[in-house]
Amino acid sequence: MAKEIEVNSAEVSLKERLWVIIPVVLLSGLLATLVYNHYSEFSWSGFVGGFNGEFLVFFAIGVFAQLVDGTLGMGYGATSTSFLLAYGVPPVVSSTGVHVAEMFTTGASAISHHKFGNINKKLVKTLVIPGVLGSITGAYLLSDVIDGDVIKPFIAVYMIVLALIIIKKALRKSIVKKKTKKLGVLAAFGGFMDSVGGGGWGPIVTSTLLGRGRNPRYTIGSVNAAEFAISFASGITFMLFGGIHGWQVIIGLILGGVLSAPLAAYLVNKIKRKPMMVAVGLLIIVLSLKTLSKLL
User: What is the per-residue pLDDT across 133-157, written as a single tens digit (0 to 9) for each?
Assistant: First the structure.
């Protein structure tokens, strides 16, 4: 009997460790592959020269976007993409940069949320596969089929819609708990729109689940954990079909996001969500309108 308990305990312990081991192994392999394939772009002079004022802008965007995403369960892609587009970064570069960076930031976020006990494992497993399939489809279309300059105004409008969704959810007074149906369809749509628009997984999936009355702590932690798989799939797809562009953008977002991920996971139950959701929504609208004004 004692041996059976020890075996079961060991199995549980291994399963728990896998939630940390898998992201670490995948990210280590990804980092090694990136450096090996692009080592010529990482010369010492180029690396040092890259740490200029523009890099600090991307670093600050990464910090802010991850704090928003980690505490609200939404907004990393929408916030960072809105800032990047408003700053003048092309759609393909911004979307590729956001998704490659998210491969690292969502990994750090998933590990942090697991550490603080914010994850519903059953919900994560339900969201992952359809979300990954949707994100791969969207990333392929944007990398190999859709013209970034043509879609740029549509992305800005899409960001405004996401911002309005965030604000609407924040202003809702009472939420009646309802059973969430067709989670797979929701995850696939969220993954697809996230890849094409450079954001949307959180505003679509998290806001829907919270709108159905799910527990905010476990919803945010679980959606963030699932987002690691979605971001990893879309990031790999972008790299295969579109290559990698804008290293300053990517490295700035990665460093800013990874450093702020543990703080965001800690703050998930410490801040007042509604005022912050409204503020983030309004900020995204302003940035998107600025992008549209430049285009028009």
Answer: 998 888 888 776 666 567 667 777 8
- For residues 212 and 179, the answer to whether their CB atoms sit within 8 Å is yes
Question: Using CA atoms, how far apart are residues 250 and 244, in angstroms rounded to an integer?
Answer: 9
* Cα–Cα distance for residue pair 96/102, rounded to 1 Å: 10
Tokens of 163: 């911002």
The span from the CA of 224 to the CA of 23, in Å, is 13
Rounded Cα distance between 288 and 280, Å, is: 12
DSSP 266-291: HHTTTS-HHHHHHHHHHHHHHHHHHH
Q: At what angle do helices 91-115 and 2-37 cross, to 10 degrees?
A: 160
Name, in order, each residue with C-beta under 8 angstroms of 137's C-beta and a sequence gap of 6 or more.
192, 195
d(CA 63, CA 148): 26
Q: Whose structure tokens read 């503020």? A: 279
- Indicate the pTM of the whole model: 0.71
Q: Which amino acid is at 213?
A: G
Instruction: Judge contact between 23 and 110, C-beta under 8 A.
Output: yes
Q: pLDDT band for position 174 (50/70/90)?
A: low
The C-alpha atoms of residue 213 and residue 180 are separated, in whole angstroms, by 9
Residue 124, judged by CB atoms within 10 A of its CB (0-12, 13-18, 19+), counts as buried
Nearest one of 254, 269, 274 to 76, comparing CA atoms: 254
Tokens of 236: 């790999």
Q: CB-side exposure of 166: number of CA atoms within 13 Å?
A: 33
Q: Flag whether pLDDT at 190 surpasses 60.
A: yes
Q: What's at 103, amino acid-wise?
A: M
125 or 246, which is more confident: 125
Kindly state the tokens that stand for 41.
Answer: 């772009």
